[in-house]
Amino acid sequence: MGILFFIAVQIVQTAFLYSNDGVGWFKTVYVLAGWSSVAVSFAVFAQGWLLFSHKLSRHRLYTAALFLSLAVFDFLQTVSLLGIPLFGFALNQDDAMWLLIISKGACALGLLSIYNLKDTMVSITHKRFAFMITSAVIVFGVLAFFLWHQKLPLLMNHGSINWLKKYLDLVIIAVCLIGIGSIMYRGRKDRAPSLLIIIRALIYSALGQGLMMTANHTYQWNYLLGTLSGGVAYYLMLKGVYRLTIEDPFREQQRVEARMNYLAFHDDLTGLPNKRRLTQRISSKIKNTGHEMTGVVVFNVNRFKNINDSLGHQAGDRILQLVGDRLKRNTRSREEVFSMGADEFAIILPALAGVEEGMERIRYLLKLFEKPVVIEENDYHITLCAGMAVFPQDGDTAEELIQHADTAVHHAKDYGVDVRHFVPSMQMKAKERLRLENDLRKAIEREEFYLEYQPLVHLESSEIVGMEALLRWRHPKRGFVSPAEFIPLAEESGLIVPLGEWVLRTACMQNKKWQQAGYKPICVSINLSMRQFLQPQLAERIGSILEEIGLDPKYVELEITESMTFDKETAFDQLRRLKQLGVFISIDDFGTGYSSLHYLKNMPIDRLKIDRSFVHEVMSDHNDAAIVSTIASMAHHLQLKVTAEGVENEEQLHFLKEQRCHEGQGYYFSKPISPEDFERTFLLN
C-alpha cells in the first residue's frame, strides 16, 4: 500500500504545481504537523515513562527516553518554522530543516539500537539513571546546536533543496530499512507481537523520507506528504507503546484473573466445577426454588487409593478424568456434576418427587460403571458408592447438605453397600470414626497393640506346621477394638506402614525366642498391607530386620492379597526381590479378587489361602464347594500349597481332606491366642 501510495503521489502532483500563493497554506500545515509530532512524542514518553512504572522494561524505558529527546527537537523545529527567536538566537528555515534531519535520524537510529537489545526488566534506580543521561544528552544537544548551527552547511540553495539534504534523507532511509531487517531477522528468539507496530512505524518513516527526497522544494506535495508520513510513523510508535504499556498488561491481567477465577471454581484435573462452585449452586437453588426437594449426591471411587498406589498417580488421574467424563455425559439437562477433589464427585438432582426417585437415579448412574474403563489399552473394573442428602429434610444450608451427603457415602463405603441416604445416626458414627483415628495415632506411642497367634495345621498329620500373627488393639477406655474397625483407618491414614513393621519385627522376635527356647522351628505368617507392599525398599528393610533378629528367612511367610497384584509389573518385581531373601509368599483370601490365571502361573508364590467365605458354606452351597475344589486342584497343578481358612467343624475338615488341601486354619483347631497360650498349648506338646 505504501508503494502504491508513493506512485499515486507522483501522478497526482503534476496537477498541483508549486505556486507562491500556496506558501502560507503549506507553512500552516507544516506548523500543525510539527505541533502534532511534539504532542505525539511527548505522549509516547508519558506512556512509557509514567504508566506501570513498577514493570519497566528496557524497550519501554529507552523508547520513552528517545521520544522525550525527539519532542524537544521537534518543538525547536516547529518554533524555527514560525521564526520565533530562542535564547537570543534567530532560527531560519534551513535551521528548521537541520532540526528535522536530527530528529528523524535520531528516531531511526534510536529504534534500530533499542529493538536490537534484549528486552529485560529494569529497576527504578535504572529508570532514574536513564532520565539523568537523557536530560544531559538533550541539554548538551540543544546547546551544541545553538552554538554551532550557523556553521552547519546549507541544506537549501535559493529556496530549493540541495544534494546534501537528499543524501541525508537516503542515510535515514537506509537506517530505517536496517532496523526493519534486524527486527524481522528469523534468528531472533524474543520477538513480541507488538514489534510489528514498530516495523510499521519504521516503514512509514522510510516512506516519508523517500517522499522528501523526490521533492525539490519544501512547498511541494511530495515534501508535505513526506512530513505527514513521518507524523504517521510517530502515531504508530504511540500506538505501539500504548499496546506495550497499557493494552498488553491489561489483557495479561485479564487473562490471569480469568485463569485464577477458573481455577477457583473448577478442578484442574477433570475440568469439572469444584466444591466451591457446588456450594454456590446449592445455595442459589435453596434461595430461588423455595421448598422444592433437591438432592445432593456424593460419589466415591472404591479402592481408589489401592488403584492409585498400584498403577501410579498418572493412571489414577486418568481414571478420575474418565469417571468425571462418564458422569457428565450421562446427566440430564438440569443435573450438574462437580469434582469434590481426590476421588469424590458430586451431582445435584433438582426437583425430586421423593427420596426413592433420587435413589433410583443414583443406582442408574452407578450401573454405568459396570463397563470397565480403558487405560493404555487395558480394561480396569472400578466401582463407585454414593451418599445422598435431600433439601430440606436433611439440611437447610449448602454446607450441611454437602457434609451429610459425604457422611452418607462414607457410611456406604464402610458397610460395603452401593448407596445410602443420610440419617442423623451416621453423623455420630463419623465423629466416632474421627475420635478412633486420633486414638489410633496415640496407640502406637502408648504400646497398646499386641499380637495373637493362630496355628496352621497339616490336615493329614494334624501337626502344627506354622502360625499366623494377628494384630490386636486393647483401647484403654473402649477395650478390645476389632481389626475390621482400625485396620482400614490405619490404611487410610498411612499409619499401617509403621504398624506393619512393628508386627513384622515383633512376630519374628517371638519366633526366634521360641526357637532359642528349644521348640521345634515353625514358620510365622505375617500380613502385608498395600502401602507396605509398594514400598521401594521393602525387601531390603525386611532383610535388615531378619538379619538383626537372627531369624532364618525360611521361617517367615509373607501374605499378600490379590488386589496388590493389580499392577502386574510392579508386583512381580517386588515379589521377586522378596523371594530372593528366602521367605515364603502366599496369596491370602484367594478367590475374592481379580487375579488373572495367566499371571498366576508365572507369579513367584508358594501358597494359596482359600478365603473363609467359601469354606464356611462348603457343606451347604454347591457353588462354594465347586470353588474350593477348583482352587485346590489348580494349586496342585501349579505345584503350590493350598491352605483353607475358616475351618470350623469336622465335616468341613473331611471335605477339605478329600480335596487334598495341605493345611487348614480356623476355630476348629484354635482361635487366635496369646503367645503364652500358644506356647503352652501347641509348642510344649
From TrEMBL:
InterPro entries per record:
Biofilm_reg_signaling, EAL_dom, EAL_sf, GGDEF_dom, MASE3, Nucleotide_cyclase, Rev_trsase/Diguanyl_cyclase
Transmembrane segments annotated in the record for this chain: 30-52, 64-90, 96-117, 129-147, 167-185, 221-238
**Segments forming domain EAL:** 433-685
What Pfam families does the record tag this protein with? EAL, GGDEF, MASE3
Query: Has UniProt tagged this entry with the keyword Transmembrane helix?
Result: yes
The protein's superkingdom reads Bacteria
Q: Give the GGDEF domain ranges.
A: 292-425
Q: Which UniProt keywords apply?
A: Membrane, Transmembrane, Transmembrane helix
> Which NCBIfam families does the record cross-reference, listed alphabetically?
GGDEF
Q: What is this protein called?
A: Diguanylate cyclase (GGDEF)-like protein
